[in-house]
Design brief:
This is Stp1/IreP family PP2C-type Ser/Thr phosphatase. It comes from Bacillus salitolerans. With about 260 residues, the protein is α+β, with helices and mostly antiparallel strands. The chain is about 35% helix and about 25% strand. Strands 2, 3, 4, 5, 6 and 9 form a 6-stranded antiparallel sheet that branches. Helix 1 runs antiparallel to helix 2 and helix 6 packs antiparallel against helix 7. The longest helix is centred in the N-terminal third of the chain and has 25 residues. The C terminus is likely disordered.
């Protein structure tokens, strides 16, 4: 299992409010995470950084995860802890009022992957040469699509595309979606912020993943493609390769 992480400010934003990383627990198991912060001033940066740093600390101190039930319980408990920490920080610091962050993370076990998300940062898997979006955006336009009020094509250009219905840190309690899939035939796992998924189509994602060589080349080229298409937002990507035996990268948590 090899990994790659990259975050990029993009071509327009002055600050990078995204964060993420790949971390190992005491048993050498992998946690991947992407967080896309939002809020006034630089509060989005604070929210995403606090989230990633908290999960990094929790995971690095965690014991071995042996079952999907254990993984799901661990995620639920720690999402609640992080949400509470963000919420209290925002009400205690005026400059961080209303801050929040999306969250998508995955515990990668040899036999299963447990995925959790809040907001519109996404998780995809590549399996049998097909790309599948595992998460479902907690956004206004996605709800409109689900209820048949607009088409998926209309959603791409909807003026309220960025309105989120769920994020981490803005409320005392948060609902997180958690699911577990087996690793059977999974070739790649991709986590990303909407700075990538809003710019690069599913077809392009799959094409780069299948044809661009190393994980570093794949991830770097995808970020470059999002910037080529405008780069209006911060762009963050985590890739996990479940197939290859050679090591391309280790623990990446710096920005």
């Amino acid at each position: 299992m090899n990994t790659f992480f990259l975050t990029d400010r993009g071509k327009v934003r002055q600050n990078n409010e995204d964060n993420g990383g790949v971390f190992q627990n005491l048993d050498g198991q992998t946690l991947t995470i992407v967080a896309d912060g939002m809020g006034g001033h630089r509060a989005g940066d604070v929210a995403s950084t606090m989230t990633v740093e908290a999960f990094k600390q929790f995971w690095c101190e965690a014991e071995s995860i042996t079952t999907p039930e254990t993984a799901e319980k661990w995620i639920q408990e720690h999402v609640n802890l992080v949400n509470e920490s963000l919420y209290h920080h925002s009400i205690q610091h005026d400059e961080c009022e209303g801050m929040g962050t999306t969250l998508v993370l995955a515990i990668c076990h040899d036999e299963f992957i447990t995925i959790a998300h809040v907001g519109d940062s996404r998780c995809y898997i590549v399996k049998e040469n097909s790309l599948t979006q595992v998460t479902e955006d907690h956004s206004l336009v996605n709800e409109l699509v689900r209820h048949g009020q607009i088409s998926k094509e209309d959603a791409e250009y909807h003026p309220r595309k960025n309105v989120l219905l769920r994020v981490l840190g803005t409320e005392r309690n948060v609902q997180v979606d958690i699911k577990t899939i087996t690793t059977d035939d999974v070739q790649y796992l991709l986590l990303c912020s909407d700075g990538l998924s809003n710019k690069v189509t599913s077809g392009e994602l799959l094409s780069h993943i299948e044809n661009d060589g190393t994980l570093e080349e794949i991830g770097t080229n995808l970020v470059m493609k999002a910037n080529e298409y405008g780069g209006e937002d911060n762009i963050t990507i985590v890739l996990v390769d479940f197939d290859r035996s050679f090591a391309e990268s280790g623990d990446h948590d710096d920005r």
